[in-house]
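Consider the tokenized backbone below.
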């Protein structure tokens, strides 16, 4: 009493074996899913670390680019001032030459 009746199915085997094999398959699938989750987590962490490294490298490049841009602006301004001084000097020299003739 209290025991399950195990009737044979079409193949002549009891349904208990089928239930056990289904349970075993479910356990194996869950174990494989856990392994996949762990490997995905590991792969995800590795990918995240690589993205962080790339982001850091891009930040460094951006900073260097900004520094170069600032230096070029200073050089441009300096060249404009020198050109202006040269033009003023040439204008003064021209006036002196014209005044002497």
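A designed sequence for it:
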């Amino acid at each position: 009493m209290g025991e399950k009746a195990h009737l044979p199915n079409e193949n002549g085997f009891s349904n208990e074996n089928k239930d056990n094999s289904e349970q075993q398959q479910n356990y194996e699938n869950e174990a494989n899913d856990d392994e996949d989750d762990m490997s995905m987590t590991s792969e995800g962490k590795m990918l995240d670390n690589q993205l962080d490294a790339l982001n850091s490298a891009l930040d460094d490049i951006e900073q260097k680019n900004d520094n170069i841009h600032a230096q070029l602006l200073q050089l441009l301004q300096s060249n404009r001032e020198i050109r202006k001084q040269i033009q003023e000097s040439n204008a003064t020299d021209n006036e002196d030459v014209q005044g002497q003739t």
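Residues 72 and 78 are 10 Å apart (CA to CA).
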